[in-house]
């Protein structure tokens, strides 16, 4: 059984729901287990996270990673960035090199910065030597979605809701399945 981490930060719940659908996609692949993890809040005034806070050891030992954040002014949220700023030891040792990864996001408006946020989450993963994957256009919902989903990663439009559209949830599950399938292949085939 290989472990895929689904790491997220969520303020209002939409990104957390995307994480859960990605985890369902991961677990649809035999031999793969999804670990839902979040990052710690920076401000002590924020409520405690709903899922366990990730440890560097968990990240080091994962077979793959899905990472998500809500859009914050076109960037990943500060708590997620703060976490990555603490991963220098993993970067120096190369623990994440050649592991597959993907990203996901949510925003309050369709043009609120989803794609730029997905890109900002890719940068630390690339620096760690991870192999990024998105959603290929062979996924039919990517052609018809009216609310979320990009070739760069899963996305959702929150609009004061936390429930995902059928297209958003389908694309999130497919991204999780693709990540898990790739991680499983890589774990069986030495590079």
From TrEMBL:
Secretion signal, residue range per the UniProt entry: none
Pfam families, per database record: FMN_red
Cross-referenced PROSITE patterns: FLAVODOXIN, FLAVODOXIN_LIKE
Gene Ontology CC: membrane
Flavodoxin-like domain ranges (all copies): 4-180
Cofactor entry: FMN
Compositionally biased region (Polar residues): 156-170
Residues passing through the membrane, by range: none
Keyword Flavoprotein assigned: yes
InterPro entries named among the record's database cross-references: Flavodoxin/NO_synth (IPR008254), Flavodoxin_CS (IPR001226), Flavoprotein-like_sf (IPR029039), Flavoprotein_WrbA-like (IPR010089), FMN_Rdtase-like_dom (IPR005025)
One GO MF term: electron transfer activity
Keyword Flavoprotein listed: yes
Spans annotated as Disordered: 142-170
Keywords: Flavoprotein, FMN
Record-linked NCBIfam families: flav_wrbA, PRK03767.1
Family statement drawn from the similarity comment of this UniProt entry: Belongs to the WrbA family.
Name of the molecule in the record: NAD(P)H dehydrogenase (Quinone)
Source organism per UniProt: Vibrio xiamenensis
Higher taxonomy: Bacteria, Pseudomonadati, Pseudomonadota, Gammaproteobacteria, Vibrionales
């Amino acid at each position: 059984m290989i472990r895929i981490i689904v790491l997220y930060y969520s303020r209002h719940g939409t990104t957390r729901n995307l994480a859960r659908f990605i985890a369902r996609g991961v677990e649809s692949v035999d031999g793969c287990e999804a670990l839902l993890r979040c990052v710690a809040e920076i401000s002590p005034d924020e409520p405690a996270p709903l899922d366990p806070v990730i440890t560097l050891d968990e990240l080091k030992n994962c077979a793959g990673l899905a990472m998500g954040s809500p859009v914050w002014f076109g960037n990943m949220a500060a708590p997620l960035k703060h976490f990555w700023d603490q991963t220098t030891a993993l970067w120096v040792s190369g623990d994440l090199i050649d592991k597959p990864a993907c990203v996901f996001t949510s925003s309050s408006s369709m043009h609120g910065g989803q794609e730029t946020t997905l890109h900002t989450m890719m940068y630390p993963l690339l620096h760690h030597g991870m192999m990024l994957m998105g959603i290929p256009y062979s996924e039919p919902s990517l052609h018809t979605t009216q609310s979320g989903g990009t070739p760069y990663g899963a996305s959702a439009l929150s609009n004061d809701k936390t429930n995902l559209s059928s297209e958003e949830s389908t694309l999130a599950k497919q991204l999780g399945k693709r990540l898990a399938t790739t991680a499983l292949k890589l774990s069986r085939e030495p590079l």
